[in-house]
Every structure is written in structure tokens, then in C-alpha cells.
Design goal:
Elements: H1 3-9, H2 23-33, H3 36-43, H4 50-60, E1 62-65, E2 79-81, E3 84-86, E4 90-92, H5 105-115, E5 120-122, H6 130-136, E6 141-145, H7 151-163, E7 169-172, H8 182-187, H9 199-202, H10 205-210, H11 216-227, H12 234-243, E8 248-253, H13 256-264, E9 269-272, H14 286-297, E10 303-305, H15 312-320, E11 325-328, H16 330-361, E12 374-377
The structure holds flavin mononucleotide and the ligand CCCCCCC(=O)C(=O)O.
The ligand CCCCCCC(=O)C(=O)O binds near residues 96, 125, 175 and 275.
Enzyme class: oxidoreductase
Pfam family, one: FMN_dh
InterPro entries: Aldolase_TIM, Alpha-hydoxy_acid_DH_FMN, FMN-dep_DH, FMN_HAD, FMN_hydac_DH_AS
Length: about 375
Amino acid sequence: MSTANVDAILQNIGSEEYFPISYEELEQGAKQKMSAGAFGYVRSGAGGEETLRKNEDSFKKLSIVPRVLSDVAGLDTSINLFGRIYPHPLLLAPVGMLKMADEQADLAVAKAAAEHQIPVVLSTVASYSMEEVAAAAKGPKWFQLYWSNNEEVSFSMVKRAEEAGYEAIVLTVDTVMMGWRQEDMRNRFSPLKLGYGKANYETDPVFLNSLGSQDSDSIIQGILDNIHHPGLNWKHVAELKKRTSLPLLLKGILHPEDAKLAVANGIDGLIVSNHGGRQLDGVISAIDALPHVVESVNGSVPVLIDSGIRRGSDVVKALALGAAAVLIGRPFVYGLAVGGQNGVEKVLENFIQETKVSISLSGVSSIKDLPSLKIVRA
Ligand SMILES: Cc1cc2nc3c(=O)[nH]c(=O)nc-3n(C[C@H](O)[C@H](O)[C@H](O)COP(=O)(O)O)c2cc1C
Ligand SMILES: CCCCCCC(=O)C(=O)O
């Protein structure tokens, strides 16, 4: 391991201010900084939170069987997605309404990710518009689309993303309506109604033209009318595919048959995800769904994963089970709440370094060799 890695591991020791390292510490730190409603919104899952818990528990039930004496001196953690090389197998998952955590929200997150050339996936319901984020941060960026009932609004947002330099479109397909979120009902908290997610809508000419009036209340009502889209189906996906030259990924795939249909519809990549346990409670954990999805697409498209990834050894397990890359969700949101841009950078540095240590100690020296690493259910 290089001296730089050791330095990074020791970064907290002797430094003046301690920054949380573990996920549990980050969560506690964020709880102290955020309002009860905002923290509850980020932390919680749907229903009885069975899936939220299962996401993490499933990772813990998997064990790495490492190799030794395999010369890991020349570690290579780079990956290739859609023809572009990234230095780490990590992306930042789309997280909407980040002003709940920090005023600089998506701007701070995109700047932190750019420091490491980690792609950030900007949410449709971001707190800053896609053009503002593109102007603030020059790193790789993808755009996450929530389908709009007025489909011309969807196509308009995709066109804007292309023009602003976003490199892929991620259509989220597990959110045709909001999950049953008891914590938010208890707290009477809706960040959408508070306007934290309106930036991409209030800057969209097609959306604005569709409204009778363009005051703040009408914009928010317009978003609520558009964002629930129970009619979404494969025809929309096929039409969207025709409308963009960018790689199109579907986020929220758990069933191998849906994965096959996605490939048949020309989709370029999949994200195995249960939305961090925030949509349908009781569903399979993402890491348990992953090998079946990977098998069903048989290498035809890259399969990424999110939901429950908390540390470097989780990244190793996901890549060993066939993921092309992983997306981090809540950990970076908590980093943002605790320390703004600097907090996100710290979370990413720890993920990067722990991932490197975990791959090396597994006896593997390149990401492309991780699928040969033995993982057992213990
Ligand atoms: C506060 C919050 C907001 C989110 N907003 C979005 C969003 O706008 N679009 C989306 O596709 N997924 C959204 N997600 C889901 C994440 O992209 C991701 O699937 C999930 O956070 C992964 O699980 P993890 O947080 O356990 O890592 C959100 C998640 C959280 C916690
Ligand atoms: C209709 C779904 C709106 C969801 C907004 C943000 C999100 O994805 C979340 O998990 O919260």
C-alpha cells in the first residue's frame, strides 16, 4: 500500500477537529445538524423499514474469502463506463432536495465529487438547476429523470441535460408514486412542498408554459401534479431512448425479467436498486437481487447497484458479484449535513481509501479481476 493511503487512513489522528468516519457516526452527526423533519426524511425507509434494514443486513451476511500472496502492489481501481475511464468504481446516487442538508446542496456535492472525478447523478428534484451545477463543477455528471405526466417536460429536461454537458440519463422507474413513508407523515414533512426540489422545473420553459400561473405555489403544485406518474410503461422508455443520444440507464431494477426487457428495449445500463428502502417495503435487498440481474443480462450492459452501501468492503462485495460500479446514497448526504463540501469530500476520501485497502486485502489488484473473488453466504 502506498504511503499516501496510510496517510489518508490516519487523517483523523492528530488533526484538530474530528470528522466522523463510520456510517453510524455520520448519521449521528447529521441528526445534530438537521431539523427533525429533514433528518427523518433522509434516514427513514418506507413502511416498517424492513427493506431499509435488510439492505445493510444482506451485505453483512456475505463474506469475502480472500486470496493471499498474489502481489497487489500495482492496484488499479479504474473502471470504464460507456467509453469513459473513471479512477474509482464509485458514483454519487441522485438525491433530491439537498437544501434540507446544506444551503449549497448540489453545488457543494458536485464540487466535492469533481475533486475525485467521481460522477455525480443530479436529481430531477435537485435544489439547484442542472445548468447551475454544470457551471459550478467541471467533473463528470449524469442526469436522473423523474418521468413527468406531461412527457414534453421530460424531453425538455433531457435536451437541457445534453446541452449542459451531462453524459448519461438515468430514468428512475421505481417511483411512479411516493412510497408509504410513516416518518414523514409523523413529522408532517414534505420537502417537495417546501420547494426544495423546484430548481429544474422553475427553469424549464416547457414546464412553465404548461402552468396557468407561474407564482411559487403554482410551480410547486405543478411539480406535484407531474411527478406522480403511475402510467409509466415500456412505450415511454422506448420513446425516451429515441429522443436522446446519451446512454440511457434504468434505476430501480430488481427482477431479472425486467432487466431482460430493458436490454430488449435498447437500454444501455441498469441500476439495481430498491431506492434505499424508501419505496416498496418488503422487497428484496439490492445486493441479493444483483447476481440474478447480472446473470440475466449476460454481460450485454453494465449493471450498477445502490442501496445499503456503507463502506469499502461493501463495494468489494458488490463488484465481486458482478456490479460494474456502485452508487453511494445517504453517506454523502450526511457528510454534506455535517461539513458541507468539505464533509462530502471526507466521506468520499474514506470510501476511496477503504475500497482500495479492501480490494488489496482480498488479494486482488485490479477491479476487472474482482468477479473471480470468492463470496460466500455465512
Ligand atoms: C433524501 C433522499 C432523496 C432521494 N432522492 C432521489 C431522487 O431524487 N431520485 C432518485 O432516483 N433517487 C433518489 N433517492 C434514492 C437514491 O438515489 C438511492 O437509490 C438510495 O439513497 C440508495 O440507498 P442508500 O441511501 O441506502 O445508499 C433519494 C434518497 C434519499 C435518501
Ligand atoms: C414521486 C417520487 C418523488 C420522490 C422524491 C425524492 C426521492 O426520490 C426520495 O426518495 O425521497
